[in-house]
Amino acid sequence: MPNTSDIKVWKDILNELKSNSEANEVVITEIKEEISLQEQRNKREVMKLYEKVKAQSEDLEKLLASLKSDELFTLPSDEQARDSFIKSVEERLENSHQLVDYARNLLETTTTSTDTIEKLRRTKKEPAVRAQFPRQALLGNWIHYFTKDMFTCQCFWDDNEFKEYDFRDNKLVEERSGKFRVEDGKVHMDYDEGKTATYSVTGYSDDCLDYLINKTPIRFDYMPEDLLNNLLEGSAKK
What we know:
Elements: H1 7-41, H2 43-67, H3 79-108, H4 114-130, E1 140-145, E2 150-156, E3 161-168, E4 171-183, E5 186-191, E6 196-204, E7 208-213, E8 216-222, H5 225-237
Antiparallel strand pairs: 1-2, 1-8, 2-3, 3-4, 4-5, 5-6, 6-7, 7-8
């Protein structure tokens, strides 16, 4: 249980509640507006009539082929009627083809604006950016590729110890260790050799950690323990 007399605990939960509430409001507003627009667009009815007009176009094409055959309306007195029928069918076909193409393009294209999609995407990360980053979310192994063949793996343990491994061509080339602490959404790494690195958390999940390091966005992806152990064991054998 948290220490309810600790002012920081109350500040943290207040910040988290505010962040969550604001993010909820964005999602609720944006999706309600989109639902309203979807209802007004009446996509289901558009699809229904699209399919009907498409089928009718096929019938019109068959009728046109019959009208242009030499087997029907063969008498001179029938030519005027046939020409009128052909003209009517061709006009309907042209109009129907245009409508079918237009409707198909509309149905195949998303009508939700990119601004709305981007706003909802950002909202997913918003609580991580502003709320207190939990220390527990850092524990484990995290990998960042600098190039295709060169990467770093950082390992954080519950006793505040960390290790950092540098690999090249899947071979361990250097390792460092030290102590870490998490404060105000930042990860502070105090290396045994005396230097300190500070990473500002901008987003996190079970699969990745997003940092701002020296004003540069950097992402670390989660690495399973057995995969790291295989790399370390493979390096030891070489």
